[in-house]
Structure formats: structure tokens, C-alpha cells
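testing teh design pipeline on a random one, pls ignore if ur not involved
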């Protein structure tokens, strides 16, 4: 990403920490939480890779193609899972946004690791509106969080709904920051 190196590294740290927590959530006893956590971990680590400041490291061009393919596959998985519930539509939109950013970064105007005008303004704006709305709604839902039925008081880290919501909120904020750079 272009921009200040310090804010780029903060974004990398936020996304990597979120991805790591989502890996912990994959140990949950609740099947739906485990499924969602896997996709969110992939998203967190993928965003961390994309957020590495261009001034520090410019990955080879094939990395952007690989990210587009991985997130295209994640999008297809989310599309398939969406037929059973609307909860996966957010993952589908997120995967689509990641494909879009990977293609923009690989494009000629992106010069391998930057954004600089390679994005489509209408699509970027639409994704920005979606993720800003998502962040606002997720922020409102975060406070206060009611107890989840079936989750014991001494539940492990993977079964804490308020932490899962905080993770989703932080990834939404990171997505807004990354889309602003497209």
C-alpha cells in the first residue's frame, strides 16, 4: 500500500492479529463459529499481506494473481454456503473486495504493489459504502453483547461472541482503510 509506512505497519499488525485470533476461534465447540472463523482468518492474513507498505517490500507480480485466485475460491465457497443463510453474504462481498484489490494491485497502474488510480471508482465507492455501513452496524452491535445461549461462563477464547464481533469490526475498519487507498 502507498502512504505512511507507520500506518501501513499498524494495518498489517491489526490484520495479522485478527487472523491469529480467528485461528483460535476455529477451536470452538460451535460448528458455525468454526466455519466462519476459517474464512475470517484467511481474510485477516490476506489483508495483512496486502497492507505491507510498498516502500518496504514489493512482492513479485504472481503474488497478486495468487491472492486473486485464493480469494476467488473463498468467494465461491461463500456463495455456496450462502444458499443456507444470509450470514455468508458478507464473506462473499469481502472475498470479492479482496479479489478486486488484488487485481488492482497487479494492474499496470498499480505497478505491482500500489494502488494509484487502478481501481474502478464506482466499484470502489460501492464497496466503501458497504464496508462503512458494516463498520457502523458492527460497532453498534458490539456494545453491549448479550450472553449466547449454550456458551458456558468459562468458555474458551473461541467461544467469546464479543471478541468475534470485535474481530469483524477491526477487519471492516481495515477494509475501509485499504479501499480508500485503491
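output:
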Amino acid at each position: 500500500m502507498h502512504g505512511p509506512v507507520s500506518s501501513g505497519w499498524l494495518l498489517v499488525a491489526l490484520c495479522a492479529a485478527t487472523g491469529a485470533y480467528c485461528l483460535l476461534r476455529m477451536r470452538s465447540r460451535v460448528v458455525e463459529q468454526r466455519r466462519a472463523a476459517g474464512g475470517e482468518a484467511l481474510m485477516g492474513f490476506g489483508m495483512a499481506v496486502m497492507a505491507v507498505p510498498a516502500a518496504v517490500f514489493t512482492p513479485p507480480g504472481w503474488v497478486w494473481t495468487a491472492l486473486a485466485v485464493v480469494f476467488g475460491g473463498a468467494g465461491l465457497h461463500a456463495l455456496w454456503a450462502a444458499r443456507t443463510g444470509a450470514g455468508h453474504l458478507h464473506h462473499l462481498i469481502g472475498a470479492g473486495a479482496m479479489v478486486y484489490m488484488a487485481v488492482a494491485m497487479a494492474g499496470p497502474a498499480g505497478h505491482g504493489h500500489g494502488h494509484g488510480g487502478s481501481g474502478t471508482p464506482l466499484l470502489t465507492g460501492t464497496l466503501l459504502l458497504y464496508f462503512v455501513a458494516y463498520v457502523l452496524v458492527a460497532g453498534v452491535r458490539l456494545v453491549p453483547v448479550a450472553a449466547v445461549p449454550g456458551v458456558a461462563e468459562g468458555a474458551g477464547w473461541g467461544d467469546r461472541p464479543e471478541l468475534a464481533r470485535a474481530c469483524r469490526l477491526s477487519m471492516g475498519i481495515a477494509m475501509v482503510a485499504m479501499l480508500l487507498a485503491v
